[in-house]
Write a structure and sequence with these properties.
Blueprint lengths: L13 E6 L8 H9 L2 E12 L5 H11 L9 H7 L8 H10 L3 E8 L2 E2 L6 H6 L12 H17 L5 E2 L2 E7 L3
Parallel strand pairs: 1-2
Antiparallel strand pairs: 2-6, 3-6, 4-5
Helix pairs in contact: 2-6
């Protein structure tokens, strides 16, 4: 196992390149293709992303926690619609997208999972997802206040579990 963003350790590349919940590159297509190119010819690539609707309550209630620091409230619905992930977060669209990145024999499976109570995982989902971009420019004390406020928002709206379902896409690179 090695860091796939570093040059391959061998001329042939890696047998398997895998990354979890990560197409949060400035350019998702270029970033994904770079990682997939680290696999040897005929090697395997595996990638997971959130399924449409997964972790949605976290994102829906985060803007209210950010209001003290946002000059304009975040239009979460518009941000989701604009996000690259929203165009590939179903089984067929993810499979098609991986194929367009050069993978062959693509398989996509759903891994259903729920997380409860949300207070134990909600902030980890913010920090470990594209939501973290909404925290840019805040100092550590402000981020902590946003964390506390976002957890209070979830509790106030009766969110007692979070859908953490992912899509797992696998395929082989061109031999």
């Amino acid at each position: 196992m090695a860091d796939a963003t570093a040059p391959p350790l061998t001329i042939q590349g890696y047998d398997l390149v895998r990354w979890a919940l990560g197409i949060f590159f400035p350019d998702p297509v270029t970033g994904t293709e770079h990682l997939m190119a680290q696999a040897r010819p005929g090697g395997r690539a595996a990638l997971t992303i959130w399924r449409r609707g997964a972790i949605e309550p976290v994102g829906r209630h985060l803007p209210a926690a950010l209001l003290p620091w946002e000059p304009h409230p975040v239009d979460w619905a518009q941000a989701q619609q604009d996000a690259a992930i929203s165009r590939i977060d179903t089984l067929p669209t993810f499979a098609q997208w991986l194929g367009a990145r050069g993978l062959h024999r693509v398989l996509v499976h759903t891994h259903s999972h729920t997380a409860d109570p949300p207070a134990t995982v909600a902030w980890d989902l913010v920090i470990g997802s594209g939501f973290r971009a909404l925290l840019e420019g805040l100092n550590p004390a402000q981020v902590d206040r946003v964390r506390q406020a976002s957890l209070q928002e979830l509790a106030a709206h009766g969110v007692d579990w979070i859908d953490a379902t992912t899509l797992i896409g696998t395929g082989r690179t061109t031999p």
